[in-house]
């Protein structure tokens, strides 16, 4: 435990300036790094309030000393915090690290430069574009460049002296038309460099220069009546335009912009980054961040934004965000509400959401425990529960046309059906189709038995129905003294409203939320289980009544016949002798006479 007096002295001496604070434990090991607009107020807040999350409470207990660094502005604090987290790796900080080596497109610094992909950056003056998050993007770009411009692929030193000396001979690439033979001075350096400049612009997402050059070349060839060559140039223009149409997602005037959005749940955040140039997405990347404490979306997005821009060496001076966060002062921040800019934000959010769904599918297979914990935590938050609903029970009544009223109780454990714990109930104390009284009876019978047998109680009860059914179930919990010990909700079928006890306003969950999907699965399973039992009961009664309608045949005889022959059809097909073996000759004759 930290010495309160020692910590209070350290806090009292902190300045009220922007800066970065560092928490250390009794062994002088770094615990946490944070930034603040006002160091004294921010650090004091850790010790002045009760924290909702256990991890934060544990962190505060371990703090033994506080160190700080004062900086001129908030944006300086943001950058310093990011660098210190990566350097010190504190236990309670979100770590934005990535061990991937991303691919780049390199324009080599040499006479007649080569253009190729690489994962290694060599500081030799060459130009590197990227990094790209997908090798597929790199290949697509290089294929486009190769289809438009004849470039050399050899690694010869094409200095003027060596070319003049005739040291090299053209290779197969020249004869295939993929290279114009600069090694034998068949192509001028100036012409080659113009191609390289066009390639630079294409990589940056600007196709205007290339289009203008090819159109001028096509018109010149057409005027000379070299139509075959003009058609080949026209094919290149179409290739370029097709690529541009596919890559341009918004107004081409939107140039050199970074877009950041975040989708999060109880345990993780997913930050998507799009980089736009001339209306085209030139880079897309989604980062998964594990929450360590009670980080908000704003805090996670702020950390990820700084890290991603540094990692991908972004030079963009404008960023689009879904909500305001603190950034470097030199950046222009736009919060789009309408039009093309808003559509980009929505596209980024969709990317983050798809990434999250893909991760969930992978986790469900590779780490089912984490998948279950995440769903339980999400349900706890969505339904405002005090405990995670590891054990859930759902009740449903079935009384078609008022006959044979029955009820079903289905049980889910860890978000999955536990079929061995399912139970059927025949309604005993209620006459006729009374849903409310039936619900009151089955809930009372279920939990009276669990309490008497000292069986574990669920953390959540789901009642299939609205406020009426929920109130009836609550009466039984009151009688048993379980009110407040088990959370209970009702789900109404029409609009999937979730009702809480003594709350007249229902909760409407997102139609795509996993919490609602599990509640719907519970309700549907309870309905299926109850209807099956109801049909079986009606069917049995119908069969019994058909046999009992025979003069001289009572309920016990009917049951004996079904026990012996398994079905009414076999009873009808049986001989008098076979029937007599089961119920005696006198009754056998009556039965045989009825069916024949």
From TrEMBL:
Family note: Belongs to the UvrC family.
HAMAP family named among the record's database cross-references: UvrC
Start and end residues of each GIY-YIG domain: 16-94
Main location (coarse class): cytoplasm
Subunit structure: Interacts with UvrB in an incision complex.
Entry protein name: UvrABC system protein C
Keyword Cytoplasm (UniProt): yes
Alphabetically ordered keywords of this record: Cytoplasm, DNA damage, DNA excision, DNA repair, Excision nuclease, SOS response
InterPro entries (alphabetical): GIY-YIG_endonuc (IPR000305), GIY-YIG_endonuc_sf (IPR035901), GIY-YIG_UvrC_Cho (IPR047296), Hlx-hairpin-Hlx_DNA-bd_motif (IPR003583), RuvA_2-like (IPR010994), UVR_dom (IPR001943), UVR_dom_sf (IPR036876), UvrABC_protein_C (IPR050066)
Domain UvrC family homology region profile: 263-477
Organism: Flagellimonas pacifica
GO CC terms, sorted: cytoplasm; excinuclease repair complex
Top-level lineage group: Bacteria
Single Gene Ontology MF annotation: excinuclease ABC activity
Record's subcellular location: Cytoplasm
Functional description taken from the UniProt entry: The UvrABC repair system catalyzes the recognition and processing of DNA lesions. UvrC both incises the 5' and 3' sides of the lesion. The N-terminal half is responsible for the 3' incision and the C-terminal half is responsible for the 5' incision.
An example Gene Ontology biological process: SOS response
